[in-house]
Design a protein that fits this description.
- By secondary structure, the protein is of the alpha+beta class.
- It is built from 19 helices and 26 strands.
- Helix 3 (50-67) packs across helix 7 and helix 8 (163-173) packs across helix 10 (193-211).
- It is globular.
- Residues 210-215 have low confidence and may be disordered.
């Protein structure tokens, strides 16, 4: 070693233990303060309880992950955070804590560590919110899983819980395997862990196969080939063919008309899909052949052009002209630059916890997935749009620089977590320092080139991850024009000008609610009078009052109300009522509770529904069904009497 030394492995906590003359890291003042606060919250008196120590350790890890912008998720760092939170909550569960408690420990952590880590103080609210929402979600998971597990255990005729059941609880409901094991032990049962592992392996293989569907197989290119990408400055260029492969990945010497191929070039203006930006498409040609490129992928330093030979033949070494589809590339460029501006706006408005979780940039739109635990409000979306369009109107220069990665980090450039970067990186800067990101994609020269930015939708795609889809340029203009046209149509329908439109619609909605209430009252009266009339059509089968009838223009609710009234009136009874509306059949079956051991409403409803092209279901004493075969209704209803005679 340049400087002789001994690595003792003594971190700050071990050094603190030595200085404080204690034998364990958990006995130092920092941990003891946390542990005592946790003991107060959980009611645990034994300060050496392992669960207290686990929770103390985990609140630190979770808080600092949340400070760094990590949100609980099902993959990557988010999955690590989710696992740690849930493990801490399970230890609280073992201490008898049934209410959410973990997020409350952030205050204690800030008290003991806030002075050394000011970011913990600054982001305390965000950390508490992230942990509380995850804890609440896990509490619901535990409640749902326990109900399902307890029911399954009661129905088992074995002392072993099948692996497939353990997997279903884990995969579908997020119920931890170790918690399933705890419940099993309480019932003196075992887990089929081999079966669980087998089910897990099957799912992983299926997921792997799905993720590879439609992708280009990794080609055996060799280490001597590379492609010089020229597409930042030019959409046309000259190049030579360095490799030809079929779609199975087999190397070819020559390509003929009609064949789908993968073509490698020494230089290319075609952008290979990466960083969320889709691959370019266009044409490769010369005087004797034409190859249509419909996608471009990237493998290492080589661009792979996937397409079809339209004319002539193509051989390795042939010289070609390359032509990227200009209109689509321009639209993609607008959307990509707008994605950077939107990312910056989201971080400004929602908070710096916002990080990119996924992106798709094509010619029609941009799609951006980001970490955020709650839906983005209409007001927040309005602010995002306004901020992005402000930057567009500023028409600032978009700078693209290649620099050492250390310089880029010093500049504050945002990097995508999980992406691999070399010693030098390309940094795209917009609006001065408004947006600074690592990016190898295609961008406008000035923000004003984007023209217009408009959010099309905002949705949640998983816990802690939101998705915004937006359009730019002509796409944004078209969206605005369509919305304006729709607004004019609504004004025409309700006979209102633009300024009075909201009041007019609210007035009509209030009137509609009043009319619906009055209509419901009328239908209730009608159901009552119809019930009295139908009572005269009742027949008796083995001491049971049976009514089968068709009513005109009754919806399912009116049919249910009528069945309820008749059940109260007739006593021991079976009732089947049908109604036809707009070519569809509604069916309601009622059975008095004293008959449900002989006849269930669900079985009877299904028997009738199968004959009218539908299906049904419900409780033993009340079921509903529907169907599309109106012509079959009379014969289906006639089959009720002989069916009941065999049951009653």
């Amino acid at each position: 070693l340049p400087k002789p030394s001994v690595d003792t492995g003594a971190g700050l906590e071990r050094l603190a233990a030595v200085l404080q003359n204690v034998s364990s890291n958990y006995e130092i003042d920092l941990f003891q303060s946390l542990i005592k606060n946790i003991a107060d919250i959980t009611g645990e008196s034994d300060l050496e309880n392992t669960s207290l120590r686990v929770i103390a350790d985990h609140i630190r890890a979770c808080a600092f992950l949340a400070v760094d912008g990590v949100i609980p998720a099902n993959e990557g760092r988010g999955y690590v955070l989710r696992r740690i939170v849930r493990r801490a909550v399970r230890h609280g569960y073992q201490l008898g804590v049934k209410d959410i408690f973990f997020y409350k420990l952030v205050a204690s952590l800030v008290e003991v560590m806030g002075s050394a880590y000011p970011e913990l103080v600054e982001r305390r609210g965000v950390v508490e919110k992230v942990l509380k929402e995850e804890e609440e979600q896990f509490a619901r998971t535990l409640d749902n899983g326990m109900v399902i597990l307890e029911k399954a255990i009661k129905e088992l005729n074995s002392d072993t819980i099948p692996g497939q059941m353990v997997f279903k609880l884990y995969d579908t409901y997020g119920f931890p395997v170790d918690l399933t094991a705890d419940v099993a032990r309480e019932h003196n049962m075992n887990l089929d862990l081999d079966g669980f592992e087998q089910a897990m392996l099957i799912q992983k293989n299926q997921a792997r196969a799905a993720s590879n569907f439609g992708s280009v197989e990794k080609l055996d290119i060799g280490s001597d080939l590379s492609t010089d990408f020229t597409g930042y400055e030019n959409l046309d260029g000259t190049c030579s063919v360095t490799g030809i492969f079929d779609v199975q990945g087999d190397r070819l010497d020559e390509a003929l008309i009609g064949e789908e191929l993968l073509v490698l070039l020494n230089a290319s203006p075609f952008y290979g899909e990466s960083g969320g930006q889709v691959g370019d498409h266009g044409i490769l040609d010369n005087d004797t052949c034409k190859f249509e490129v419909f996608d471009t992928q990237k493998q290492g330093e080589v661009l792979i052009h996937r397409g079809v030979m339209r004319t002539g033949a193509l051989r390795v070494g042939d010289q070609l002209s390359a032509h990227v589809a200009e209109v689509d590339r321009l639209a993609i460029t607008l959307n990509h630059s707008a994605t950077h501006l939107m990312h910056a706006a989201l971080r400004n408005i929602l908070g710096e916890h916002v990080t990119q979780k996924g992106s798709l940039v094509d010619a029609d739109r941009l799609r951006f997935d980001f970490s955020h635990s709650t839906p983005v409000t209409e007001e927040e979306l309005k602010q995002v749009e306004a901020q992005v369009n402000h930057e567009i109107l500023a028409n600032s220069i978009v700078e693209k620089e290649v620099m050492p990665i250390s310089e880029a980090k010093t500049k504050g450039a945002l990097a995508l977590f999980g992406e691999k970067y070399g010693d030098e990186v390309r940094v795209v800067t917009m609006g001065g320092e408004y947006s600074v990101e690592f990016c190898g994609g295609c961008h406008v020269n000035r923000t004003g080139d984007i023209g217009l930015f408009k959010v099309a939708s905002e949705t949640g795609i998983s816990a802690g991850v939101r998705r915004i889809e937006a359009v730019t340029g002509k796409g944004a203009l078209t969206l605005v024009e369509n919305e304006e046209q729709t607004l004019k149509q609504i004004m025409g329908v309700v006979n209102s000008g633009p300024l009075e439109l909201v009041d007019r619609v609210q007035q009509l909605a209030a009137n509609n609610r009043t009319l619906e209430k009055q209509l419901g009252q009328l239908k209730a009266k009608m159901a009552s009078s119809v019930g009295d009339e139908l009572a005269s059509q009742v027949i008796e089968i083995n001491g049971t009052q049976v009514l089968v009838a068709t009513l005109e223009k009754f919806n399912s609710k009116s049919l249910r109300d009528t069945v309820d009234r008749l059940k109260n009136k007739l006593g021991t009874t079976v009732i089947v009522l049908a109604s036809i509306n707009d070519g569809k059949v509604d069916l309601v079956v009622g059975v008095s509770k004293d008959l449900t051991k002989k006849v269930t409403a669900g079985d009877l409803a299904n028997m009738v529904a199968e004959q009218i092209g539908g299906k049904g279901g419900g409780r033993p004493d009340m079921a509903m069904a529907g169907g599309n075969d109106v012509s079959a209704v009379p014969s289906a209803l006639e089959s009720v009497k002989p069916w009941l005679e065999g049951k009653l």
